[in-house]
Amino acid sequence: MAKKRQDERRPHGELVADVLAVLWAAGGPMTAQQVNETLGTGLARTTMATILSRLFEKGTLRRVPSGRGFAYEPVQDAPGLVAGRMHRELESEPRRDLVLKRFVTSLSQDDEETLRRLLLEAEDEAR
Q: Has residue 96 been placed in a domain?
């Protein structure tokens, strides 16, 4: 397979998103070689192993021994991963109230209604 030119590279984060999609669909741990074969990227196995290792170091994946290497699986599903990112962003902001206000005022009517319902459900569960 011919190498891609610099300007033909995937947009930042697209490969990681594709890797996570493969792992979520797998239903169990996969090795770097298995992920690479599933994606058909033509990347070196060591490149894929590096990507998976970095996701492990960030806490996005867990790994289990597999032969002489590791197999990886997601720690959370896609919605859990997004919620975790949102939470980390909120935790890093000193003006949380302002961030939440701007977030809520930018929601569509459907999303606002969903958020209200979820807040009520969480309140009921806490009782």
A: yes
pLDDT higher than threshold 80 for residue 12: no
Token pair recorded at residue 98: 């302002």
Domain encompassing residue 47: 11-74
Whether 40 maps to a domain, the answer reads yes
pLDDT tens digit string along 64-91?
999 999 999 999 988 998 898 888 889 9
Between the CA of residue 82 and those of 2, 15, 113, 117, what are the distances in Å?
35, 17, 20, 20
Average pLDDT over residues 47-55: 94
| N-to-C CA span, the chain | 60
Domain count for the chain: 2
Token readout for 127 is 């009782």
Q: For position 2, what pLDDT does the model report? A: 45
Using CA atoms, how far apart are residues 21 and 88, in angstroms rounded to an integer?
22
